Amino acid sequence: MSDLTLSFDHVSFTYRGDWLQRIHALTDVTLAVPRGSSFGYLGANGAGKSTSIKLLVGLLQGHRGAISLFGAPLGDPRLRQRLGYLPEQPYFYDNLRVGEYLAYLGRLSGLDGPALAAGCDRVARLLDLGELLGRKLRSFSKGMRQRFGLAQAMVHQPDLLILDEPFSGLDPLWRARFKEVMDLERRRGATLFFSSHILSDVEDLCDHYAVIDHGTVLEQGRLAELLGQAPLRLTARGPRAVGATDGDDGAWTLTFPEQDRERVLASLPAGAAILRLERQRIALEDYFVARIKAFHGAGRKLAEGAGVER
Amino acid sequence: MVIAGATFRESLRSRTFAGLLVIYAVAVALSRAVGWISATDGDIVTTDVVFSLQSVIGVLVAVATGTALMHTEILQKTLYTVLSRPLPRWRFVVGKFLGLAGALAVGQLAMLAIGLGYLWATGAPVQRWLLLAGMLTLVEVLVMAAVSLCWTALSTPLLAAVLGLATYALGHAVATLPELMHHLSGPQQYVACALASLVPNLGMFTYRNQAVYGTPLPLGDLLQSLVYGAAWIALLVAITIAMFRRKQL
To answer: Chain B neighbours among A 36-65 (CB < 8 Å)?
Structure first.
């Protein structure tokens, strides 16, 4: 069995615009999503996130390169039985009731009989839809539609959950609940692949990430490794080291990269008392902005200032 | 059939559908007035108006819903959660058409019941041939639904609606082609026949004028009309599938 749930191997995709216009949405994208991981796909609007996802779920066709799902080449519609998909800002038929709709989509994913009833019951409980099963979706607010959207993606207990901006339109309480539900899905064994603009949510949820911009993947890897690249900050009292800045209560601080740790500690002035040595927290949002600006050659100074330029 | 079932329920519950049935009922109630002011037999004129209304309103509903069906799915992205499941696109198109056909059939049967009920209540003669006329109108409506679905796959919804209604007009004009043939020379006849074969001959389903006068419909003619209608529906749905399979969503 493949260790990857999903992989893109040098995938490119071009939209047809008006007349002879061609829009290159993805250029030579290579991605590897390990089985059981929670993969955050980060990018600004129009970066190529939704195009990648649409290729995955079969809404777009005609890419170059290879996409594999569960170790098999994309193409056989039966592979989609094992994935659940929540589109960005999902729309649903107005005149179907929640219970009917869940059963309808569950049947399309191959459920029937007791398994279908159990699947619908499970997601209704997880997302508090039980009392809404008889209501038509026409009367739903944006947040309620998002809840239904996640429910329909999970109803058949897929091995891969693809969520396009899952936290859009949710209040803080439901964002927290979504995270709990997604955590439950992971513990069940599902792989999560999601895009989000709310980077604090990505930080909370994902263990792997990729950054895409203008159809090109800038980098990807484990989030822990990225966060491990954060600089160290030393807080001390007494004689000041070269380059130190004033801190609180007469203390001073010095920030330096991990690889300089031994050299900096060895060169501290005699009599300097170390109060703390800690790793600075990288705010993923700052990192994300800096990384993209650096890629385009703008804001390089800002990126270097954040200490995360590679 | 899962897609067809959901489409059927969604279509039947739409306000447009119920609204057009109400309009039909009101128009039928007013048809008696046309009978009163007519110089000929009032009952025959009323019956003719009732059945013409069934055809016209049925076709309008078929064109409106047929053109909106796929476009709304694409525009509102409701098909995203459907086509991301293990479902080939051809099954989606066939399911949508069958669901729409089911809803249109219910609408046509409701109109037929309202129309015949009204004629019976007002004392107009209700002959069994009228039932056959109603059934052939249903086939005509289903052909027009397939025409609209096909035009939507090839163009924009507004243009598809216009082209759908144009096809309806041409389809009835084609029915009069044999009468015009003797006015045309050899090559013109070939061109006229070739052009006529591009649209369904809707005259094959227009039996209401004869039914009003109690003229029997031979079984052979009925079967020919049904097979002709089924063949056109199959062809149009196949074209729609071919176009939709390549559509980028």
So the answer is: 54, 57-62
Residues of A in contact with B80 (CB under 8 A): 57, 59, 85, 87, 90
Q: Say whether pTM exceeds 0.80.
A: no
Would an 8 Å CB–CB cutoff place B85 in contact with chain A?
Answer: yes
pLDDT < 50 stretches in chain A: 298-310
**Torsion region of A19: left, alpha or beta (phi above 0 gives left; psi -120 to 50 gives alpha):** left
For residues B199 and B193, what is the distance between their CA atoms, to the nearest angstrom? 11
- The H-assigned helical ranges of A206-270 are 223-228, 261-266
Q: Which residue has the tokens 């491990």?
A: A228
Minimum Cα–Cα distance from A16: chain B residue: B248
Does the pLDDT of residue B216 top 80, yes or no?
no
Q: Check residue A303 and give its pLDDT.
A: 41
Residue B149 in tokens? 């679905």
Distance from CA of B247 to the nearest CA of A (A): 8
Q: Identify the CA nearest to A164 among candidates A88, A215, A240.
A: A88
| pLDDT of B40 | 66
Phi-psi region of A248 (alpha: psi -120 to 50; beta: other; left: phi over 0): beta
pLDDT grade for B183, boundaries at 50, 70 and 90:
confident
Beta bridge partners of A209: A40, A221
Question: What's the rounded Cα separation, in Å, for the pair B185 and B174?
Answer: 17
What φ, ψ does residue A18 adopt, rounded to 5°?
-70, 140
For B9-56, the pLDDT digits (tens) are 888 887 777 888 888 888 888 877 776 666 666 677 778 888 888 888
Give the closest of B81, B86, B88 to A152, CB-based. B81
CA A91 to chain centre: 22
Judged by a CB distance cut-off of 8 A, whether residue A148 touches chain B is no
Task: Give the separation between CA A11 and CA A52, rounded to whole angstroms.
Answer: 9
Contacts of A258 (CB under 8 A, 6+ apart): A228, A229, A231, A232
Of A58, A87, A104, the CB nearest to B77: A87
Can you tell me whether residue B1 is helix, strand or coil?
A: coil
Q: Can you tell me which residue has the tokens 């007013």?
A: B30
Q: Do B85 and A95 touch (CB under 8 A)?
A: no
Residue A241 DSSP class = P
Chain A CB contacts of B9 below 8 Å: 95-96, 100
Instruction: Flag if B87 and A108 touch (Cβ within 8 Å).
Output: yes
Nearest to B2 among A77, A80, A108 (CB): A108
pLDDT at B38: 66
The one-letter amino acid at B155: S
Any chain A CB within 8 A of the CB of B87? Answer: yes
> Is residue A92 less than 8 Å (CB to CB) from chain B?
yes
Place of tokens 């529906």: B233
Residue ranges of alpha helices (H) inside chain B are 2-12, 15-37, 42-75, 80-83, 89-121, 128-154, 157-174, 177-181, 186-196, 208-212, 219-245
Q: State the pLDDT at residue A283.
A: 66
